[in-house]
Specification:
heterotrimer; A mainly alpha (about 300); B alpha/beta (about 350); C alpha/beta (about 270); A: about 300 residues; mainly alpha; MetI-like fold; 12 helices; about 75% helix; about 0% strand; B: about 350 residues; alpha/beta; D-Maltodextrin-Binding Protein, domain 2; 2 domains; five-stranded mixed beta sheet
């Protein structure tokens, strides 16, 4: 019906449509420009900090035995790359496996907590307590029960990482619009359908918030796990360096740890951007559209 | 990209990455294992019979206190005794004493103080050899501080490691030097030498064979006050320990273990440089960023493992009486609830029966 | 082809789509008991467009929830197509004021939602959704996400989703309440077009009297809470309805009448 075509365009104008390219530029350079705009400032800031650091230590304001210069650190990084690589791989494997299992555990827990209020009341305090157990008490148990292999490190990573994921995901599940649930009910959706089609996707933005936090802590968690007892890993590498007074190598390990954390974080952000394009597309210019179910 | 594709990628990409990382790790481990196997020397007197696995827990990251063990391993002397020795890495949070007394490892490395404390809390271990015949620890201060005698430690800051006996020992040293014995005790989790070099603390308690040598190499001049020169009874540290259970059940194994270990330390006494190299090769890759330190430390320590004419590892009753009594008198031995104990049979804490 | 306009009023009432008899509902709000509906009766004939108007908070939504099968009545009978013993959920297309579009689904996928719940094979559902979008002029937005659409567009998509799930019986709870006047008008016309295409039976809720008159065959006026039926009026305006019909004397008179009743209720 032609009149409908007319009517549909008359008044309604869509909100921001992100896909429109800037006037007068080719799409490729536009994306490159945006990349520079996004990461440029952080890069520049980093260079400035490093330069200042180098100057301060060279000038003797801070002793080089406490805080070595960036150039010295970089040099040692290249020289000791072989050893570092082996230990990095170890820590990376622990982190990656631990984080993956944390995601599974976190989501399962979130769904469990969401399913019934008495489960929530029983388990939630236990979860919170799990985060307060100091490593000093836990470490001996882990070592005696699980030894020096991969298991205790993975457990420590899970301990650090599952909680933000579980809590964030549970909050996301909780925040489903009750009207939407009524709509699903009126369509005769089963509980599982509602969970799979509505509540879990709805919880994804929150889930990713939690995952970002967990990813940032995961590498450090693996290193703490290594302190329990390990043959190799970045944590052990740092410990050896400390006991041999090789401060520069400690910083090398720190640089690698930071890079790993950034990489993991970046990976999570990339997955989020790919999995939730709707969430990203609506963020430019309209905060209203950020609400999980729009007006 | 539709919903299915997005879902698939969101799960698929991470799974793929995990597989890649784990795969690379496994390959790397395999490659490392094949290169590791090649280092042990062929045997002159091979062992006939079943090979027993033994686990040894270190008290610290590998250092020159442990050289003899690594020598014996590299030379194949444990293998010749029918032992597959697995050196278990140092753990920040679990001491070798706990691992030994709980039966998780067969032998470990500890100190007289540690062994006495273990007995007091009801988890006794037994010292079966003294690695260094005389105490080689000292209080040190920067030469630039102008401190020339421990009596000048009064009122100064001591950077310690949180043990209950530190207060008693340091105080006694100061008083024996003519001071009052008052000092500020702060527990550090960082390296004491770093704190000392940056003037955060005034003095620390360190090993002459490691920290003092390192400081010299870094160009710091230290004033060194060996504790035994200031009235502290001589005692053994570190020691090789095992559990009473192990002694009861596997005395023969312990004898064989010690036979190889004695050979290792004897070799280290005779050939410090080669021994140092074996320590460097035997420890996990990357343990010694500064190999020069290892060689320098080994030169010092090889001369101290034992006295001339004295068999390595043998323990005298005097060393097990004097210092433990000193600790007892100063209420520095605490039971499991933190109360100082009043008496203990120290002679039960050591034995030479596994040394030939 | 029989269309709604050509049927006699008597014929329509012969086969009611919905019969509500003596339905009441009380619910607990904290400590007190609130009576939302006093025993209420109404009917919707097959193919009829019935509107409920009443002051805010009178319980219209509660009644809707009950008819849609989301809630249960305390007393009374609800018959859909003459059956009162079957589960009501799934028998009607239910639409609330918020479009409730899932932001992670495209427009086409949102329209398919009801069919997905019914486990209709994906390709089939996609085809039907696509057809519907094409038919009602929204096909160029099929792959867009709701976040990029305006309010009016979203409401249209929500209507299409509702209709695709069940075009036989529609429950529409103030679907145009949040829109501006011009958008509302265009959507009202669009809804009438839908209604005519599918011969749906519609139960519509609004508090806009003019909208009620424009759209409906019959209007029930409800009292303030607890809701009961105050008045039932027939709207005798020509079909197909046009905006101009609202200026006809009969329409103006009806509007006045209804407003008066409502104002009295509001004041009460």
């Amino acid at each position: 019906m032609k009149s409908n075509q007319q009517i549909s365009h008359e008044r309604d104008t869509p909100l921001v449509n992100v896909e429109v390219p800037l006037v007068g530029t080719r799409p490729m350079s536009n994306r490159a420009l945006r990349g520079i705009a996004n990461y440029g400032p952080a890069f520049v800031f980093l260079i400035v900090v490093l330069a200042l650091w180098e100057v301060i230590v060279r000038g003797g304001l801070i002793s080089a035995t406490l805080l070595p210069q960036p150039t010295v650190i970089a040099q040692a990084l290249v020289t000791h790359w072989g050893d570092l690589w082996v230990n990095t791989m170890q820590t990376l494997v622990e982190t990656v496996i631990g984080l993956a299992l944390s995601v599974l555990l976190g989501v399962v827990l979130a769904v469990l907590l969401d399913s019934s209020s008495w489960i929530r009341r029983t388990i939630y305090p236990v979860l919170i307590t799990s985060q307060t157990i100091p490593m000093i008490a836990l470490a001996p148990l882990l070592l005696i029960w699980f030894g020096y292999g991969l298991t205790p490190k993975v457990i420590v990573v899970i301990l650090y990482c599952f909680f933000p994921i579980a809590v964030a995901c549970a909050d996301g599940l909780l925040g489903t619009d009750p009207d939407l649930l009524r709509l699903m009910k009126s369509m005769r959706a089963t509980r599982w359908q509602v969970l799979w089609m509505v509540r879990l996707p709805n919880a994804m933005p929150s889930f990713f918030s939690g995952l970002r936090i967990a990813a940032t802590y995961s590498v450090t968690g693996a290193i703490f796990g290594e302190y329990v007892g390990a043959y190799q890993g970045l944590g052990i590498y740092m410990e050896n360096a400390a006991h041999s007074f090789a401060i520069v190598l400690i910083f090398d390990a720190i640089v690698v740890t930071a890079l790993l954390s950034l990489l993991l974080f970046g990976l999570v952000v990339w997955i989020e951007r790919m999995a939730l394009p709707w969430y990203q597309r609506s963020t430019l210019g309209d905060s209203r559209a950020r609400k999980t179910v729009g007006a | 990209m539709n919903r299915r594709t997005r879902l698939l990628l969101s799960i698929g990409v991470p799974v793929l990455l995990i597989i890649v990382v784990v795969g690379a790790y496994v390959l790397q481990q395999r490659a490392a294992a094949t290169t590791q196997k090649a280092t042990v020397a062929p045997s002159a007197t091979p062992w006939k019979g079943p090979i027993t696995t033994m686990k040894l827990a270190l008290d610290w990251t590998p250092n020159t206190n442990h050289t003899g063990i690594y020598v014996a391993q590299q030379m194949g002397w444990y293998r010749d005794e029918g032992i597959d020795l697995q050196i278990v890495p140092y753990s920040d949070s679990v001491s070798p004493d706990v691992l030994v007394s709980s039966g998780k490892v067969d032998v470990g490395i500890s100190s007289t103080e540690g062994i006495v404390a273990d007995a007091a809390v009801g988890q006794p271990v037994v010292s079966i050899a003294a690695i260094i015949q005389h105490n080689t620890s000292a209080l040190v201060a920067l030469a630039s501080s102008g401190i020339t005698s421990p009596k000048q430690f009064d009122g100064k800051i001591y950077g310690g490691f949180g043990a209950p006996y530190e207060q008693a020992v340091v105080s006694a040293i100061i008083r024996n030097a003519g001071g009052k014995g008052d000092f500020k005790n702060v527990t550090l989790s960082t390296d004491a030498m770093q704190a000392l070099e940056n003037h955060r603390i005034d003095f620390a308690w360190v090993f002459e064979g490691w920290e003092v040598i390192q400081a010299e190499r870094q160009g710091y001049k230290l004033n060194v006050f060996p504790i035994t020169s200031f009235g502290i009874p001589d005692y053994y540290t570190p020691n090789i320990i095992t559990s009473p259970q192990e002694i009861k059940e596997k005395p023969d194994l312990l004898k064989r273990f010690m036979a190889a270990t004695v050979k290792g330390y004897d070799y280290a006494i005779q050939h410090p440089n080669q021994a140092a190299k074996m320590l460097i090769d035997g420890a996990p890759a990357g343990t010694f960023p500064d190999t020069g330190l290892v060689y320098a430390s080994q030169q010092f320590l090889s001369a101290h493992y034992t006295d001339p004419g004295h068999k390595w590892g043998w323990q005298d009753a005097a060393a097990w009486q004097g210092y433990p009594e000193f600790m007892l008198k100063n209420k520095a031995i605490l039971d499991a609830s933190g109360k100082p104990i009043t008496s203990m049979n120290f002679s039960a804490l050591y034995t030479n029966e596994f040394l030939s | 082809m029989t269309t709604v306009e050509s049927m006699e009023p008597g014929e329509m009432l012969k086969r009611p789509k919905l019969v509500v008899r003596g339905v009441s509902k009380t619910y607990r709000d904290g400590r007190r008991l609130v009576e939302a509906l006093t025993p209420i009766d109404l009917t919707v004939a097959r193919g009829e467009f019935v509107t409920l108007i009443g002051p805010s908070g009178c319980g219209k939504s509660t009644l809707f929830n009950i008819v849609a099968g989301v809630d249960t009545p305390e007393a009374g009978v609800i018959e859909i197509d003459g059956r009162s013993d079957v589960e009501r959920a799934g028998l009607c297309g239910y639409m609330l004021q918020q479009p409730l579009l899932l932001p992670w689904r495209t427009v086409e996928e949102n329209v398919m939602l009801g069919l997905d719940v019914r486990r209709v094979p994906r390709r089939q559902a996609q085809q039907q959704a696509h057809e519907l979008l094409k038919r009602f002029g929204l096909v160029e937005f099929a792959q867009s996400y709701p976040g990029t659409l305006s309010g009016g567009m979203r409401q249209r998509v929500a209507l299409l989703r509702t209709v695709l799930f069940n075009h036989d019986f529609l429950l529409l709870d103030e679907p145009f309440g949040a829109l501006d006047a011009l958008t509302r008008l265009s959507l009202q016309m669009w809804l009438l077009d839908l209604w005519q295409s599918f011969h749906s039976s519609v139960l519509f809720v609004t508090h806009d009297v003019r909208e009620a008159i424009l759209l409906s065959d019959r209007i029930y006026v409800l009292s303030a809470r607890p809701a009961r039926v105050l008045r039932v009026v027939q709207v005798d305006l020509p079909r197909p309805r046009r905006q101009e019909h609202l200026s006809l004397p009969s329409a103006v008179q009806l509007e006045q009448e209804l407003l008066q009743v409502l104002m009295k209720e509001q004041g009460a």
